[in-house]
């Protein structure tokens, strides 16, 4: 019985090609399939929006590494979210979302789906009593991110699953920040896992993609139907790149965590750093919950500096090995100023972030080089 995470990441959905023995699923750059007589489909393939063998390989692997019954691959994380929300919710339904939801997710609710009659409330998910109080008779879904972006807040997935169950609502976990290697939401009671596979799952900053993984077969069927009906699927080359990334996910995440822990130590000791946000710190308000539901604490680190916004921007500008850029989860280290970059659109909203905040996506480079670069970027005083 094969069930180790690393084994599944390398093999699930990836039998050697029956014709050639190729050990890696080929890129099936094809839209349609010859039928053996009308309706005589070979292995079920008919048209590549409905299914494509390269995408199938990725989808089976995603289901295996998240411990679900069905995995589905999309053109982006937001395409996956949109498909899920319109498959499951109808006008008039209510969704509880994180008080500090990913900006694109917030925008999808606030600017797109609200026009179609979906109601939502941002709630601080670290506070289970607040979530319980926000549940309404028409609440259809609780949408969770943990850890959150960029403040690294932590929510108790098992506790939220219990609230969702009592409310007859679905629990959806955006597992992008943790990755399936560090956190398994379906085993903690979630119904659906969402990923921006653009981030850790793909892991090499070379492809945009998204995924849904359902725990139950019935919901998996429903989502599969909508994936085809709505059509925002991953193309074969994108699916292939993502599958290639998954093979090393466990190795990469261990190194991301190793390096992040050393970066945290450096920042904690630095006179110009006023606060370090990392769920691995025992001083972090969500540390105990994170320790319960995560294998390790990930590669994302945020910190605040003395000197306010100008100083934070200067640190970002001075970094050299840490590349100044948005996104996260790739092998290369990134640095950014959330207030002016990823979270600029949140200014003046409840999602506004501190101006002196810097966010790091710690990569897998030699840690001495990363520490050296941060030291020079932080400067003296
Ligand atoms: C990037 C991201 C998304 C959106 O995914 P895209 O692939 O950019 O569409 C959703 N959730 C989180 C937590 C993200 O970081």
Structure description:
- The protein is an alpha/beta fold and 381 residues long.
- It has two domains: 5-246, Aspartate Aminotransferase, domain 2 (3-Layer(aba) Sandwich); 250-378, Alpha-Beta Complex (Aspartate Aminotransferase, domain 1).
- Helices cover 37% and strands 15% of the residues.
- The chain has 13 helices and twelve strands.
- It has helices at residues 5-11, 53-66, 77-88, 103-112, 128-134, 157-166, 179-182, 217-230, 236-246, 249-269, 287-293, 308-318, 367-378; strands spanning 70-74, 94-98, 119-123, 139-145, 170-174, 192-196, 210-214, 273-277, 300-305, 323-324, 334-336, 357-361.
- The strands form two sheets. It has a seven-stranded mixed beta sheet with strand order 1-7-6-5-4-2-3, with helices on both faces. A five-stranded mixed beta sheet has the order 8-9-12-11-10.
- Helix 6 (157-166) links the parallel strand 4 (139-145) and strand 5.
- Helix 2 packs parallel to helix 9, helix 3 (77-88) crosses helix 8 (217-230) and helix 12 (308-318) crosses helix 13.
- The mean pLDDT is 96.
- Bound molecules: pyridoxal-5'-phosphate (PLP).
- Residues 76-78, 102, 104-105, 145, 149, 174, 176-177, 196, 198-199, 208, 210 line the site of pyridoxal-5'-phosphate.
């Amino acid at each position: 019985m094969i069930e180790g995470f690393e084994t599944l990441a390398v093999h699930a959905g990836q039998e050697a090609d029956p014709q050639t023995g190729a050990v890696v699923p080929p890129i099936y750059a094809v839209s349609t399939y010859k039928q053996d007589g009308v309706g005589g489909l070979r292995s079920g393939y008919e048209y590549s929006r409905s299914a494509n063998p390269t995408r199938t390989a990725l989808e089976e692997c995603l289901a295996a590494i998240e411990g679900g019954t069905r995995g589905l691959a999309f053109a982006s994380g937001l395409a996956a979210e949109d498909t899920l929300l319109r498959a499951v919710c109808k006008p008039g339904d209510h969704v509880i979302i994180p008080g500090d939801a990913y900006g694109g997710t917030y925008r999808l609710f606030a600017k797109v789906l609200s026009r179609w009659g979906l109601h939502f409330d941002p709630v601080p998910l670290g506070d289970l009593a607040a979530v319980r109080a926000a549940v309404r008779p028409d609440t259809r879904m609780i949408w969770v991110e943990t850890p959150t972006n960029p403040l690294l807040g932590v929510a108790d997935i098992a506790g939220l699953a219990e609230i969702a169950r009592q409310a007859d609502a679905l629990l959806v976990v955006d597992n992008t920040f943790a990755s399936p290697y560090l956190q398994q939401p379906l085993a903690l009671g979630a119904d659906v896992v969402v990923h921006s596979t653009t981030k850790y799952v793909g892991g090499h900053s070379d492809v945009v993609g998204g995924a849904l993984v359902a725990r139950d077969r019935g919901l998996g069927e429903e989502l599969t139907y909508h994936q085809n009906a709505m059509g925002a699927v991953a193309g074969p080359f994108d699916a292939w790149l993502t599958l290639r990334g998954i093979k090393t996910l466990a190795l990469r995440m261990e190194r991301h965590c190793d390096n992040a822990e050393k970066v945290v130590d450096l920042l904690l000791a630095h006179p110009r750093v006023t606060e370090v946000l990392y769920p691995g710190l025992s001083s972090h308000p969500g540390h105990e919950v994170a320790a319960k539901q995560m294998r390790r604490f990930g590669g994302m680190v945020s910190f605040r500096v003395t000197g306010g916004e100008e100083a934070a921007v200067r640190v970002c500008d001075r970094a050299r090995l840490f590349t100044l850029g948005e996104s996260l989860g790739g092998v290369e280290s990134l640095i950014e100023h959330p207030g002016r970059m990823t979270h600029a659109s949140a200014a003046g909203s409840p999602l506004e972030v501190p101006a002196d905040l810097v966010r790091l996506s710690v990569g897998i480079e030699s840690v001495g080089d990363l520490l050296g670069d941060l030291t020079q970027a932080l400067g003296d005083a």
